[in-house]
């Protein structure tokens, strides 16, 4: 017989946070909100789950969007700010559209090959309650000569990460040993899975995603912006009030 305090199995709902639906709202380049469908409609007692996404730190040499978006005039730039926007196509060789993180250096000469807070952002993901078995894939952790080197870490909750290709990627996703390439090589954002890491959290309410540029070289002809993508989130939560 189950103990009286156990949560009823009917309370646990497994759902997909599908970025490419109207349930996601990009409020601005620094914030967005996702609310899942109500599992049993507004008349039923089960409740939806809400996820807020917020930029909570921008390094002194880091800005959101491309360099051209921020007033530079380099050739072949998208002149755009895709931060927290959703891609129109699928990412990282997956079947999922991607939530974009998109940033660039303010001053090329202040770029460094070591990871510094100046060349980093932090994005914080916060659920409306503690959730279980959160899983998603970070894609396009790559790099390009005289442009950018992506480095990505997680803090705030216990996680495990699986590299899609350990000959291309290294690191364990900690702040001291982030996921990053072993070589400088750009990957196709849509089709390549070499720069993918699948992350799973047994239990989490909030976590931080740290995103550095650790490229020190630049070119007057190259917009030094960088991007990574997050696939749809799979998650289980307690929908009972
Ligand atoms: Ca309901
Ligand atoms: Ca890429
Ligand atoms: Ca990238």
Report what the structure shows:
By secondary structure, the chain is an all-beta fold. The chain has strands spanning 12-17, 24-28, 31-35, 50-58, 62-64, 86-90, 97-105, 120-139, 143-144, 148-155, 160-163, 169-170, 179-181, 197-213, 226-230, 233-238. The protein has one domain. Bound molecules: calcium ion (CA) (3 copies). Residues 38, 40-42, 44-47 line the site of one calcium ion.
* Total of helices: 0
Ligand identities: calcium ion
Fraction in helix: under 10%
Largest sheet: 16 strands, antiparallel
Q: Which percent range describes the beta-strand content?
A: over 45%
Global morphology: globular
Oligomeric status of the shown chains? single chain
Question: Helices and strands in order, then pairings?
Answer:
Layout lengths: L11 E6 L6 E5 L2 E5 L14 E9 L3 E3 L21 E5 L6 E9 L14 E20 L3 E2 L3 E8 L4 E4 L5 E2 L8 E3 L15 E17 L12 E5 L2 E6 L3
Antiparallel strand pairs: 1-16, 2-3, 3-4, 4-8, 5-7, 6-7, 7-15, 8-14, 8-15, 8-16, 9-10, 10-13, 10-14, 11-14, 12-13
Bound molecules: calcium ion (CA) (3 copies).
Please sum up the structure shown.
The protein has 241 residues and is mostly beta strands.
Jot down its keywords.
241 residues; mainly beta; 16-stranded antiparallel beta sheet; 16 strands; 0% helix; globular; binds calcium ion
């Amino acid at each position: 017989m189950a103990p009286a305090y156990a949560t009823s199995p009917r309370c646990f709902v497994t759902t997909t946070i599908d970025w490419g639906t109207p349930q996601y709202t990009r409020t601005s380049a620094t914030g967005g909100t996702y609310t899942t469908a109500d599992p049993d409609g507004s008349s039923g007692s089960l409740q939806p789950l809400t996820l807020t996404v917020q930029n909570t730190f921008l390094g002194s040499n880091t800005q959101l969007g491309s360099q051209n978006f921020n007033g530079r005039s380099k050739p072949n730039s998208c002149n755009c700010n895709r931060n927290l926007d959703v891609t129109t196509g699928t990412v990282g060789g997956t079947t999922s559209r991607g939530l974009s993180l998109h940033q660039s250096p303010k001053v090329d000469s202040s770029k460094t090959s070591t990871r510094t807070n100046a060349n980093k952002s932090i994005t914080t993901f916060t659920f409306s309650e503690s959730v279980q078995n959160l899983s998603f894939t970070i894609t396009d952790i790559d790099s390009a000569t005289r442009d950018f080197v992506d480095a990505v870490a997680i803090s705030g909750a216990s996680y495990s990460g699986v590299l899609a290709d350990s000959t291309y990627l290294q690191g364990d996703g900690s702040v001291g040993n982030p996921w990053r390439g072993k070589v400088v090589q750009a990957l196709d954002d849509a089709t390549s899975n070499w720069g993918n890491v699948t992350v799973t959290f047994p239990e989490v309410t909030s976590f931080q995603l740290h995103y550095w540029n650790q490229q020190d070289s630049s070119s007057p002809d190259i917009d030094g912006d960088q991007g990574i993508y997050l696939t749809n989130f799979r998650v289980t939560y307690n929908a009972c009030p």
